[in-house]
Specification:
The protein is α/β, with parallel strands linked by helices and about 425 residues long. It folds into two domains: about 160 residues, Lyase, Ornithine Decarboxylase, Chain A, domain 1 (Beta Barrel); about 180 residues, TIM Barrel (Alpha-Beta Barrel), CATH 3.20.20.10. About 30% of the residues lie in helices and about 25% in strands. It is built from twelve helices and 21 strands. Strands 4, 14, 15, 16, 17, 18, 19, 20 and 21 form a nine-stranded mixed beta sheet that branches. An eight-stranded parallel barrel has the order 5-6-7-8-9-11-12-13, surrounded by six helices. A three-stranded antiparallel beta sheet has the order 1-2-3. Strand 11, helix 8 and strand 12 form a beta-alpha-beta unit. Helix 2 packs parallel to helix 9, helix 5 packs across helix 6 and helix 8 packs parallel to helix 9. The longest helix has 21 residues. The structure holds pyridoxal-5'-phosphate. Pyridoxal-5'-phosphate (PLP) binds next to helix 10.
């Protein structure tokens, strides 16, 4: 099994966090997102421990809200001592409504509206991750109106050569995010920020991409960022307090993905950063990381009920399920690989090759192609594994299909963290 919270019981049913998933499907109906609270906490602790051990006590992981956002997640993050990043006023509102400590919240995004900036300040957000000069000016003006000095971290693009790292693209010079170091825009943004009375520049941020299995790309980015820190110290006399190296550590979705040792990766990055700082004689900054997927992905799976099979000879077999792109658009969007099993037939031979099709009126509404599973019949339960990140968070109401509930498993308890949407919920905003 791809994660240690999965198993098979004496009935031949898939178990998750110690629960029989077939019983869960009966109790909560399908489709349903099922989440393992202990796994989320375990991942938070891996990051917390490794970061404090290797980077020092000031360091902090920030949970990337965009990967999974609902109230209960923020209660867990607060209890685990995590910070958070948010990318919209909606995420910020959700976190704030649970009493999450706002000084540990960081506001991201390449286009923060005036509303976002003032909403963030009204909520007492700790930091804005400032993306560009236009928003910096608004942050400064609004901070002045409020008589405060707003802490900001400048988002930079380290310009990692895409020819050597084809898979990681958000840190390229040609990106909608941040200011490029290579073109001189990063320095200009810093100079502008330093000239402003109501801006307190704490440091720099970069995020190179997602689903990265090795730590070398993070090191490559860190080398460039530290070089920039060194240059800004000598050119502008600016001393950096904080360096945020972003999120993006990978997750095992299918057997062929490597096993990832998060603590070892963090150790490798820390050794490099410490070495670079010592080499250039700059103080070691507080290090922040922003894991999303690697905190919640394998803490989740989705349960569906099979509607039927369609065997098209000479072509392929389709298995239809009672969910699809509204609850998991990731295969449709970018052909994301997933492991699929028939939860009530775990001991049967998985030799039925098929495409798992959603229920939307859209040919591209597929969850996975070319998987081998036990031959299913109508009523069987399909589990799609590792759906804790970017599934509920990306869910839509396409075809006026209601969003599934999020069920949390915790030891001997299961509880509803997000209830199933109703038709009334879906039409509540409509006049
Ligand atoms: C998406 C994103 C993250 C989280 O990425 P994961 O791959 O989920 O860890 C963190 N920081 C920024 C700026 C992002 O855009």
């Amino acid at each position: 099994m791809i994660c240690n919270n999965l198993g098979v019981n004496e009935k031949g049913h898939l178990t998750f966090a110690g629960f029989d998933t077939v019983e869960l499907a009966e109790k909560y109906q399908t489709p349903a997102y099922i989440m393992d609270e202990q796994k989320i906490r375990e991942k938070c602790r891996i990051y917390k421990k490794a970061m404090s051990e290797y980077f020092g006590g000031e360091s902090m992981p920030l949970f990337a809200s965009k990967s999974l956002c609902f109230k209960h997640i923020y209660k867990i993050m607060a209890e685990e001592g995590m910070g958070i990043d948010v990318v919209s006023s909606g995420e910020l509102y959700t976190a704030a409504s649970t009493g999450f400590p706002m000084e540990k919240a960081y506001f991201h995004g390449n286009n923060k509206t005036d509303f976002d900036i003032s909403f963030g300040m009204d909520k007492g957000i700790g930091y804005f991750m400032c993306d560009n000069a236009d928003e910096l000016k608004v942050i400064n003006a609004f901070a002045k109106d409020r008589g405060i000095k707003q802490k900001v971290i400048l988002r930079l693009t380290p310009g990692i050569d895409p020819h050597t790292h084809a898979k990681i693209s958000t840190g390229k010079v040609d990106s909608k995010f941040g200011a490029a170091i290579e073109t001189g825009q990063a320095k200009e943004l810093l100079e502008l920020a330093l000239s402003m009375d109501n801006i307190d520049v704490k440091g720099f941020h970069c995020h190179i991409g997602s689903q990265i299995f090795e730590y070398k790309p993070f090191c490559d980015a860190a080398i460039i960022m530290i070089k920039f820190i060194v240059d800004m110290k000598s050119e502008l006399g600016f001393e950096t307090d904080t360096l945020n190296i972003g999120g993006g550590m990978g997750v095992k979705y299918v057997e062929s993905d490597p096993e990832i040792d998060y603590a070892a990766n963090i150790k490798g990055i820390a050794e490099l950063i410490k070495g670079e700082c010592a080499k250039y004689g700059v103080k070691m900054p507080q290090i922040l990381m922003e894991p999303g997927r690697s905190i919640v992905a394998d803490a989740g799976l989705t349960l569906y009920t099979v509607g039927g099979r369609k065997e098209i000879s000479g072509f392929r077999n389709y298995v239809s399920i009672d969910g699809g792109m509204p609850d998991n658009p990731r295969y449709t969007l970018y052909q994301s690989p997933y492991t699929v099993v028939v939860a009530n037939k775990m001991n049967e031979k998985a030799d039925y090759e098929c495409t798992i099709a959603g229920r939307c009126c859209e040919s591209g509404d597929l969850i996975q192609e070319g998987v081998s599973i036990a031959k299913p019949v109508r009523g069987d339960i399909i589990a799609v594994l590792t759906t804790g990140a970017y599934n509920y968070a990306m869910a839509s109401n396409y075809n006026a299909i209601a969003k599934p509930p999020v069920i949390m498993l915790n030891g001997n308890d299961s509880y509803v963290a997000v209830r199933r949407e109703t038709f009334e919920d879906m039409t509540a905003c409509q006049n």
